[in-house]
Each structure stands twice: as C-alpha cells, then as structure tokens.
Design brief:
Elements (H helix, E strand, L loop, with lengths): L5 E6 L7 H11 L3 E6 L9 H8 L17 H8 L2 E7 L1 H9 L5 H8 L4 E5 L3 H5 L1 H12 L3 E2 L3 E4 L5 E5 L3 H12 L9 E6 L4 E2 L5 E2 L6 H12 L3 E6 L11 E4 L3 H12 L4 E4 L6 E3 L17 E3 L3 H8 L4 E8 L3 H11 L4 E6 H4 L4 E2 L2 E4 L3 E4 L3 E2 H20 L1
Parallel strand pairs: 1-2, 1-3, 3-4, 4-5, 8-11, 8-13, 11-12, 13-16, 16-17
Antiparallel strand pairs: 6-7, 9-10, 14-15, 17-19, 18-21, 19-20
C-alpha cells in the first residue's frame, strides 16, 4: 500500500531506537522508499549500518555530510519526503522542535519540510508526564504534527507507566491513514450484497423489483479503495463491478442466501444492500406460459437472509438497509432490532430505487442517527463506510 512513497524515518537517542529497525523493515516490505536520519545520540544505541542494510540506502548522520549530488541535502530530502516519522522522539528532541532549534540534520529537516510529520514520544514516564514536555507536545500538535501517544507498560528503567514507544502496527496505521486516507479497512473482509433477485415463473418470465444495484456497487468500490478484501454477491445488473472485488453472480434469493452463508464466516463486516425478493413461485412452469391460459400464481416465502445472519453473528459487524414507504425511522429501527443489526440505512423507496442519488438516514444503537441530504450514491457509500469505521472504533472502546 505504501509502494513508492518517500518516507523519512528520524531516529533520536532513546533506548527504543532499536524498535525503529522493525518499523523500517515493515515499511520496506510495503515497498516504500525509506531514508533514515539518525541523531548523534541515536547512533550510541543502534549503528547506522543496521539501517543502511535494511533500506539499501545511505543513512544520514551529520548536517555537514558531503552531498551525494549538487544540492543542499536536508532541503532536497525535505522537499521529496511524503511523510517524516520521528520514532522514537525523546524529550530533548521534542523540546528542540517546540523551540524551533535546528542544530542537527533531523531538526533542520523538520523545519524545512512541508510534509506531514508524525512524532512518536518514548521516554521515562516521569519525563513524559512532566508539564514542560506535555506543553511542548501540545505545541507540536498545534503546528499540525501528528502525535502518536506512547503505550503504558514496563519501561527499560524498570518503572511502570506511559512512555513505551507505540506499537509498530499503530505507527504504520497512522502512516497509511495520512498517505492513503482511505486505508481504514485494510486486512478486513467486507461481504456486500447488491442488486435485485429474480424468481423465475417460466422459461422467460420472472418476478423481480426495480433495484439497480448502484448502491451496493458503490459500496464495493469504496470499500476496495479503502483497503478491504471485498466479496460482492450480486443479483442481475448491467453494472461493472470493481476489479479488486471477488464477484459472485446469483439470480434467485435462494442462490444469494446460499452464497452469503458460504462466505459469512470469513467476513468481518457484512453490508446487505441487495433488494432480495420476499416471495418466489411455488412451482416453476416448464417452457412458456401461454397468454390464453389462466394463471393462478401461488407464492411461497423466501428465506430471510438478514434474519439468518443475525442469528449466526459472532465477530461480524452487520449492516442492513430499510426501504420504506411510510414510518421510515420507526420501521427501520424495528428491523434493526429484530435482525440484530449494528447499523441500518433507511430511505424512502422513491428516494433511492433506480436513481444515481439517494437520501438516507443512518441509524445505530439506541439513539444514534445521522440524516444525509440527497447525494450521489458514491458519496452515500463513503458516508456509510465512514460511519462503519467510526462505529468499529466506538465498540472497541
């Protein structure tokens, strides 16, 4: 996901400097271009050769190093950087940045770059809790630097408390969220249903509905852009699915039921955006029903896919839609409760079916509610996934 991104990793003189090697290694695995800058004290903890080996790139250790090309090295690096990561950031370095001091390559680079800067404090808990250090951290935050707070645990000095360098996954997620703003579903599998179902009457006729599939396909595209592994189970449409998605084509409600259940266990999130037919003919008439014949159509109820998913729900976050002709929010909340949904998207039938736009209300929990104006379905999809992302964070807390 970080392929080709220019990432500068600044390492300052704390015991956590060795952990930067793991971060650099992970960045290289994602095919980022990494340049490491080390302060003089950082070199007392880890040798520059370690990072030179990991990055296959020269490590910058001195403000007055001979330039490899005819350019001011720290200015050139400041210009080409997509992001600057300071990990670990000692109290000394944080204080220097807050005061605008530029007395080595890394502090000079921080002043010269316009790239986003991530600061990862790591130090003794008493130092971290010191009012002066906290004030300086707030100064950096006010200057639009991103502060990745340290973890709590046993420190190298033997103390217990806040001060441990944040975990590499947390740091990498922060880098991805800045460089790839929609990577919040990386490593998540999202199962999406889309489109109508068709229930055959005879060889050429079927019962269906006016669903176009546009909302489900927009959700699939947005989820794929945001790093998700997308499984799209779709009824018949004329739409082109995102090439990143695993696409399963079905026709009937029973086929959709079988495919959704087959992939349910591997899904982290399920978004049921399809308009599944509630009924199907009891008997399929072979051949073509002739017009002169009287047609007595006996219907039976199709399985309720959402109801079954709600019963089987374990780790999954379950999202449904409610298209109503009246009592929109009342009926939507009843459906959310009856089918054990985490989130439901409610819209009046006339606002969404067969259109390129939709006007929806997002409902969750007891009182959670967000009403959206009329928007293109692509923007509705973004709003829905934004809410799912935020909801996942809320329930983790």
């Amino acid at each position: 996901m970080l392929k080709g991104k220019e990432i500068v990793v600044g390492i300052t003189g704390g015991i956590a400097a060795y952990k930067a090697a793991y971060i650099v290694s992970r960045l290289k695995k994602e095919q980022a271009r990494v340049t490491v800058v080390m302060t003089r004290m950082a070199q007392e903890f880890v040798t520059p050769l370690t990072f030179q080996s990991l990055t296959a790139n020269m490590v910058i250790t001195d403000l007055v190093m001979t330039p490899k090309q005819w350019e001011i090295e720290h200015i050139a690096l400041a210009k080409k950087a997509d992001i600057v990561l300071i990990a670990p950031a000692t109290a000394n370095f944080i204080d220097k940045c807050a005061a605008g001091i530029a007395d080595d390559f890394l502090s000079t680079l921080v002043l010269a770059t316009k790239a986003p800067i991530l600061v990862c404090p790591a130090m003794n808990k008493n130092m971290y809790e010191n009012q002066l250090v906290q004030e300086n951290i707030q100064k950096l935050a006010k200057r639009k630097m991103t502060i990745i707070e340290p973890e709590t645990g046993r420190l190298a000095c033997g103390d217990e408390g806040a001060g441990r360098l944040a975990g590499e996954e947390k740091i990498l997620d922060a880098i991805r969220s800045i460089l790839i703003p929609h990577a919040d579903f990386q490593d998540k599998t999202i199962l999406i249903t889309a489109g109508p179902t068709q229930e055959p009457l005879d060889a050429i006729r079927f019962i269906s509905n006016r669903s176009s599939g546009k909302m489900g396909y927009a959700l699939a595209r947005e989820a794929a852009l945001r790093g998700a592994e997308v499984i799209l189970v779709t009824g018949p449409t004329t739409l082109i699915p995102p090439k990143e998605a695993t696409v399963i084509h079905v026709q009937t409600a029973l086929e959709m039921y079988e495919q959704v259940l087959a992939h349910y266990q591997e899904a982290d999130i399920v978004i049921a955006a399809s308009a599944v037919g509630d009924f199907r003919p009891r008997n399929l008439v072979p051949g073509k029903i002739k017009k002169k014949n009287q047609l007595n159509l006996a219907l039976i109820v199709n399985p309720d896919i959402l109801q079954e998913l709600g019963k089987r729900k374990k780790k999954q976050l379950l999202v449904g839609f409610a298209a109503e002709s009246s009592n929109l929010e009342i009926n939507a909340r009843k459906k959310m409760k009856a089918k054990s949904l985490d989130l439901i998207i409610a819209n009046k039938i006339e606002d969404g079916f067969s259109k390129n736009t939709n006007k929806v209300i997002l409902l969750w929990g007891k009182n959670g509610r967000k009403a959206l104006p009329v928007l293109p379905k692509e923007k509705v999809a973004k709003e829905i996934l934004d809410k799912i992302s935020a909801y996942r964070i809320e329930i983790k807390r």
